[in-house]
Specification:
5-stranded mixed beta sheet, about 290 residues, alpha/beta, 12 helices, 9 strands, globular
Length: about 290
């Protein structure tokens, strides 16, 4: 779970340290007053990614989502809306920043007479330059749309150079680690190590990264070192189990056996689905429906 916790910590650090920049970017407005307020909501506490008091403009609630199912996210947004409205006496304005192209949100939820509207920002559609303009949001740029003709690797290298150029000391190291952690959605550890070792003059700890992309690339890397053929079914199944357990907890013998029984094509599909499986019930449903 350490990698997942690191990912969450990176997001929350960007939210808290860059509150004003984040609100200005989301709302496209030159806000004068941005005050972070407690994001842990009362009554069976749940913790939002960001809650901000904008003075006369009201309350802004922000959630970052990697690959959430819309139905579950909508249930949480309704819960957040009700609690924030009760806690602050004003209806919150809600924004959701979607980090991975595996999920797209409609911006609206209807159920019976209930209608909830929110604004969805699909980060892969946002120009990277838009985020690079805000010092505090530079780590998020690794998930944005690369400039025309540029690769994801080139964009991440540009982010590393920007951090190196604009910051010094501990702040440089922290931002570099956050950027590497978020970039791990697309790139594996060896690639990230090459980029950040070149452009950061302080040690950046990349040993704990949260996503399957890292695990898959690390598996290839270690396989080459040990002279094993890439893509062995047993190794790929074991890798998938390790990632699922790191994100969701122990799988149990039956689920592990089911993963190890998958053929090559099914393992490819599982690799693509790993970012969207939110709990063990979702794993069971995927295995049953494959």
């Amino acid at each position: 779970m350490a990698g997942t916790q690191r990912f969450d910590n990176a997001i929350r650090e960007v939210v808290t340290s860059g509150a004003t920049a984040l609100c200005r970017w989301l709302l496209s407005a030159p806000l004068e007053q941005v005050v972070p307020v407690p994001a842990r909501l009362t009554s069976a506490p749940i913790e939002a990614d960001g809650v901000f008091d904008l003075g006369a403009r009201g309350i802004l609630h922000v959630e970052f989502e990697l690959g959430a199912r819309a139905d579950r996210l909508h249930e949480r947004l309704v819960d957040y809306w009700a609690r924030l409205n009760r806690q602050h006496g004003v209806a919150p304005e809600q924004h959701v920043v979607v980090l991975s192209p595996s999920a797209r949100l409609p911006g609206e939820f209807r159920s019976g007479g209930l209608r909830l509207r929110y604004r969805a920002h699909h980060l892969w559609e946002v120009d990277a330059e838009e985020l690079l303009a805000f010092d505090a949001l530079v780590p998020l740029a690794v998930l944005a749309r690369p400039p025309s003709g540029r690769t994801r690797e080139e964009l991440v290298a540009e982010v590393a150079r920007t951090i190196h150029r604009r910051h010094r000391g501990e702040r440089r190291r922290v931002l570099a680690e956050h950027a590497a952690t978020l970039a791990n959605v697309h790139l594996g550890r060896p690639t990230l190590e090459t980029i950040f070792r070149r452009w950061t003059d302080m040690a950046v700890d990349l040993r704990v990264l949260p996503m399957f992309r890292e695990a898959r690339e690390e598996g290839r890397y270690e396989g080459r070192l040990e002279g094993r053929l890439e893509g062995r079914l047993e190794g790929r199944a074991e890798l998938a189990c390790r990632v699922l357990e790191a994100r969701l907890g122990p799988l149990g013998a039956a689920r592990m056996d089911a993963v190890h029984a998958l053929d090559s094509a099914a393992l490819d599909r599982l690799a693509d689905a790993l970012l969207t499986l939110e709990d063990l019930a979702a794993v069971d449903a995927w295995l049953a429906g494959r």
